[in-house]
Write a structure and sequence with these properties.
Elements lengths: L7 H38 L8 H37 L14 H6 L7 H13 L1
Helix pairs in contact: 1-2
Bound molecules: zinc ion (ZN).
Length: about 130
């Protein structure tokens, strides 16, 4: 099977997209870390107050949980972006890991971390489902 690859120019374009994506996530993550620290500090200062504050604490906890779930998701996404950047360096970026054909540029622009065709993934899901 012939090895399919995107040319350097196209790879360079996606490297730039991925780099920007990584910067954006890193910014998001450090912002969220600050927010988490802030919530923890604010919360501890109010613990001695009346019981009806419990509702506030509950909301705080929910907020904090939401933020950390988001942060976990962002971290996972960051890993995917790093993986994709590695594939750019190796020259294998944009190649479907399932069928070995090139993924359309349009899909990569929409989902820069895409590793496979939507149709290939669906076929694979069906196979997994049957197991
Ligand atoms: Zn494919």
């Amino acid at each position: 099977m012939a090895v399919k690859k995107y040319n350097k120019k196209t790879l360079g374009k996606f490297k730039k997209i991925l780099d920007e994506e990584r910067d954006r996530i890193n910014e998001d993550l450090s912002y969220q870390k600050n927010e988490l620290n802030k919530t923890i500090t604010d919360g501890s200062g109010e613990l001695s107050s009346a019981t009806y504050h419990m509702a506030d604490v509950g909301t705080d906890m929910a907020e904090r949980e939401k933020t950390s779930i988001f942060a976990v998701r962002q971290s996972k996404y960051l890993n995917e972006v790093d993986d994709a950047l590695e594939r750019v360096d190796e020259g294998t970026y944009g190649v479907c890991i399932i069928c070995g054909e090139l993924i359309e540029e349009g899909r990569l622009e929409a989902v820069p971390i895409a590793k496979y065709h939507v149709s290939c993934k669906e076929t694979q899901n069906q196979r997994n489902h049957n197991q």
